[in-house]
C-alpha cells in the first residue's frame, strides 16, 4: 500500500515536506519513562530510538503474586524492602553455592551490593534439566559474565557453563539466552536437588573471555 490511496489503491506518488520535517525536528519531547526517572529530552524523530535504549524502561517484579513495576533501581529497592527473604543472596566475583530443586521452575538471585536481580531458570526435559541465567533489567543493558558449575553427587565429574546474561524487563518461562547447561538426571542428589556453584561479575571485569560469536 506504499504510495497508494488506502481506499481505492490509486497511485498518489511521494513528496517530502521539508518545512514540516524541520518543525518536527525542532520539537523537543520527553521520554515516556519520565515517571520512572528518565530526564532525557530529544527531537521527535529520536523518540522511537531512545525508547528502545532507555535504561529507565519499566521492569516487573519477578514474583508471580506481585504487580510492582518500576525502573530497575526502583525494582531493586522494592524487592529488598518487600521480598527480602524471597531470593538467594550472593556477591559479585565470589563463589556462591546454589541449591535448585529438580522441579523448581526458577530461583531468584539478588546481589548484595547493588540489589540487582537475576533469575536462574530451570526447565525439565527428557534427558535432565536445562538451566539458564538471565537478569531483570532493560533489554539493552550490557550482559554479566557468569560461570556455573554442577557437580555429580559422587564428586567424580562436573559440568561447567561460561556465558553472558541477557536482560529482560520481566520474568519469562523461556528467556532468550546466550548459553544453557543441560544437567543429566544422575547429577541430582537423592533429595531431588541440583547442587551448583555460581560466580558472576560484570562483563567488563572479564574482558579476557571471548564473547560468543567474537573474533
Automatic annotation (TrEMBL):
Keywords: Metal-binding, Zinc, Zinc-finger. GO terms for biological process: protein ubiquitination. GO terms for molecular function: zinc ion binding. The keyword Zinc-finger applies. SUPFAM superfamilies: TRAF domain-like. InterPro entries: SINL_plant, Znf_RING/FYVE/PHD, Znf_SIAH. It comes from the Eukaryota. The keyword rRNA-binding does not apply. Gene3D superfamilies: Zinc/RING finger domain, C3HC4 (zinc finger) (3.30.40.10). It holds the Pfam family Sina_ZnF. Residues 26-84 form the SIAH-type domain. E3 ubiquitin-protein ligase that mediates ubiquitination and subsequent proteasomal degradation of target proteins. E3 ubiquitin ligases accept ubiquitin from an E2 ubiquitin-conjugating enzyme in the form of a thioester and then directly transfers the ubiquitin to targeted substrates. It probably triggers the ubiquitin-mediated degradation of different substrates. This is SIAH-type domain-containing protein. It comes from Gossypium harknessii.
